[in-house]
Every structure is written in structure tokens, then in C-alpha cells.
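It is worth pausing here to work through a concrete case rather than discussing structure prediction in the abstract. The textbook approach is simple: state the sequence, then state the predicted structure, then interpret. We follow exactly that order.
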Amino acid sequence: MLIEAAILCLAMNIYHEARGEPIKGQIAIGTLTMNRAKGEIKEICPVVYAPKQFSWTSLRKKPYRSPPKEDKNWQQARKLAKKIVKGELKDVTKGATFFHAHGAKPAWRHTFQRTVVIGNHVFYAKRARIKKAG
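Step two, the predicted structure:
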């Protein structure tokens, strides 16, 4: 039951954040979500629905319903979510936990290390701390 709920949450995130992106871009949103969840299946839904983390969850007050089953983008999102949860797809974001649409210029972007640009999204990870010798 938990795994099905996690797949649904992840699929909803892929669908709403990246359905117009190439497959690699959809995988990127899915793996970024898993990175934020630190690979924990039980953390996927809390990560997706955390306040102000993903635009689609912040724009409406009513909870979203799943798209129609015949929607090809929804079918693709569910397929990718299952593979990501099962660990069958690699992280194409290089460990990213933050992203924004290309062209947006959020103030926080300078705080993080840009890892990759995929489709219309720019991905970032926390900067590695460099230990001083001594």
C-alpha cells in the first residue's frame, strides 16, 4: 500500500512538473524528488506535498486528482515513477535537490552548485564542503 501511494505521489509530481519535457527531463524531476526523499519510499509523498516546494502543489487549495487513465502523459509518468521507485533508473541530475525553469532567476540559485540543464529545467545540488588542511 505504501509503495503504491509513493508511486502515485511521484507520478503526480512528474506529470505536473515535467509532462511537456523530454523523457530525460521527466526522469530528472522524478530522481530529484527521490533525492529530496533521500531514497526513502515513505518520504516521497511528504516531499512532494511539502509547502512551497513544487509549483503545482502551491497553486491550488484543493488536492489534485489523478489525470484520466487514457492520458498518455499520465501513463508515461506512472511508468517512470514505478521504475524510479524500484531503482531501475539512474539519477540524471547528478544529485540535484533543487531546480527551476530555464529563464527563471531565483535568488537562491547562487547558493547551490548547478549540476545539469535538461530540457526547460536547471538543476542544482548543495555545494560540497571543502575541508581545510591542517
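Step three, interpretation. The chain has one domain: 2-95. The chain is about 40% helix and 10% strand.
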